[in-house]
Design a protein that fits this description.
Elements lengths: L8 E4 L2 E4 H10 L5 E4 H7 L23 H4 L8 E8 L2 E9 L1 H9 L4 E6 L2 H7 E3 L14
Parallel strand pairs: 4-6
Antiparallel strand pairs: 1-2, 2-7, 3-6, 4-5
C-alpha cells in the first residue's frame, strides 16, 4: 500500500485520516454525541471569513475550496467527527475531520450547535496515516 486507498479521507498537513475507519470505529464502539458550538468552530476554521480575499485560513478551506452549494444540501442531523491530536504527549488538540460542509451550513443558517462524535487520542491514531512516512505510521522511527 503506497497511500490512502479509496474511501473518504481528511487531509491535514502530512496526515490523512480515514473517515470510513472512524465511522466503523464509532459503530463498533458506540458513544453519545457531544454538542459542538457552531460559531466558535466556524470562526476557528475560517468559515466566517471565506469571502474575505485578504484572509488566509490556516486549518480551514480556502475561499474556492468549499462547495457552498453542496454545503447547503448537507444533513445537519448527521454527527460531525472530531479527532484528538496528541501534542507533546498530551491529547489536547481537537481537529474536525468530518463535517466541514455541515458546519458551514449550520453557521450560515445560525444553528447554534451540531452533534459531534469525539474520538479519543488512541482512536485517532488508529485512523491516522502519515503520507510522508507510510500508512499507519505517525512518527519517524528513532535512529538505531
Amino acid at each position: 500500500m503506497t497511500g490512502p486507498q479509496p474511501g473518504q479521507w481528511f487531509h491535514f498537513g502530512p496526515w490523512v485520516f480515514s473517515i470510513n475507519a472512524a465511522e466503523a470505529l464509532i459503530a463498533t464502539t458506540p458513544r453519545n454525541t457531544q454538542p459542538l458550538d457552531v460559531t466558535t468552530w466556524a470562526d476557528a476554521y475560517g468559515l466566517t471569513r471565506l469571502d474575505d480575499p485578504h484572509t488566509v485560513n490556516l486549518i480551514g478551506p480556502t475561499s474556492t475550496g468549499l462547495d457552498r452549494a453542496y454545503a447547503m444540501t448537507t444533513n445537519l442531523a448527521k454527527p460531525l467527527i472530531v479527532a484528538q491530536l496528541t501534542i507533546t504527549g498530551q491529547p489536547q488538540a481537537p481537529l474536525l475531520i468530518d463535517g466541514i460542509h455541515r458546519l458551514y451550513r449550520a453557521w450560515r443558517e445560525r444553528v447554534p450547535r451540531l452533534p459531534a462524535y469525539l474520538l479519543t487520542a488512541e482512536e485517532t491514531r488508529q485512523i491516522q496515516h502519515n503520507t510522508l512516512l507510510s500508512p499507519g505510521r505517525t512518527t519517524i522511527a528513532p535512529p538505531h
